[in-house]
């Protein structure tokens, strides 16, 4: 993993932790209450480019949401190829905000083609009956995630604190479903890893996760030595290093 990638991960983790501390201090004040976002605030925050995709991100489309008024709602622009990737986008003619938290992509009669609600900062989720879940997320963030994931693909080793290699593994970009990718262990892994039997991996908000078939997960965070350390920490931690 490059030093640039490592520093980027650390900055994101530090900012997240500082934000959490600030929120806890604010909420601890007498009478304090979180500000409620208005529909106009949400509409303003949506102006720009977004990636519209299937939940697995195997089919994507760039949507540019604009502030200019359309015949119904506000104007938008779909990149070429959207209709081929996601056929339902053929019906989309405008967008709008409904209530306080619904981002609607709508047809020329202002009827919903798909409604999205925010599930985490900058990521919205919507569903179409008979088709499944779709994701709308900030385009720059989506492309940064793709680059970060690409940097993770390849051979890695799990070592103990004293430097002893206990397992080799390969992270791939083969789709394993649910936004995860296939992971393969190399022969002669230590029982601590072999018994866990990880089969997939993913990046989630700066954290690396290894997933077993039974749903168990191991969590890793980037540390100060440009490597990944399993958390919560132990007296003899597992450390993931690039091979």
Question: Any overview of this molecule?
Answer:
The strands form 2 sheets. Strands 3-2-1-8-7-6-5-4 form an 8-stranded antiparallel β-sheet. It has an 8-stranded antiparallel barrel with strand order 9-10-11-12-13-14-15-16. The protein is of the alpha+beta class and 243 residues long. It has 2 domains: 39-140, Lipocalin; 153-242. Strand 2 and strand 3 (74-78) form a beta hairpin. 23% of the residues lie in helices and 44% in strands. Residues 1-35 have low confidence and may be disordered. It is built from 5 helices and 16 strands. The longest helix is centred in the N-terminal third of the chain and has 26 residues, at 3-28.
Oligomer: single chain
Per the CATH scheme, the topology name of the largest domain is Lipocalin
Give the termini distance in whole angstroms.
10 Å
Major β-sheet profile: 8 strands, antiparallel
Highest-level CATH class of the largest domain: Mainly Beta
* Corresponding CATH architecture of the largest domain: Beta Barrel
Low-confidence stretches: 1-35
Strand order of the largest sheet: 3-2-1-8-7-6-5-4
How many H/I helices?
Answer: 5
């Amino acid at each position: 993993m490059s030093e640039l990638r490592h520093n980027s991960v650390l900055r994101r983790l530090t900012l997240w932790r500082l934000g959490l501390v600030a929120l806890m201090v604010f909420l601890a004040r007498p009478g304090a209450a979180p500000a409620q976002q208005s529909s106009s605030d949400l509409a303003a925050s949506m102006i720009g480019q977004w990636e519209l995709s299937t939940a697995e991100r195997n089919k994507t489309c760039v949507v540019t949401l604009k502030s200019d008024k359309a015949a119904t709602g506000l104007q938008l622009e779909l990149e070429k190829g959207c209709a081929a990737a996601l056929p339902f986008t053929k019906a989309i003619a405008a967008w709008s905000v409904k209530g306080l938290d619904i981002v609607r992509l709508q047809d020329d009669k202002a009827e919903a083609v798909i409604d999205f609600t925010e599930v985490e900062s900058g990521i919205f989720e919507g569903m179409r009956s008979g088709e499944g879940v779709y994701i709308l997320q900030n385009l720059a963030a989506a492309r940064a995630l793709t680059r970060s994931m690409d940097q993770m693909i390849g051979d890695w080793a799990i070592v103990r604190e004293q430097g002893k290699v206990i397992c080799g593994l390969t992270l791939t970009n083969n789709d394993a479903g649910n936004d995860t990718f296939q992971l393969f262990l190399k022969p002669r892994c230590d029982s601590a890893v072999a018994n866990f039997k990880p089969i997939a991996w993913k990046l989630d908000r700066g954290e690396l996760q290894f997933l077993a078939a039974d749903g168990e997960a191991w969590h890793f965070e980037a540390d100060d030595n440009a490597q990944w350390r399993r958390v919560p920490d132990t007296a003899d931690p597992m450390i993931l290093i690039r091979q």
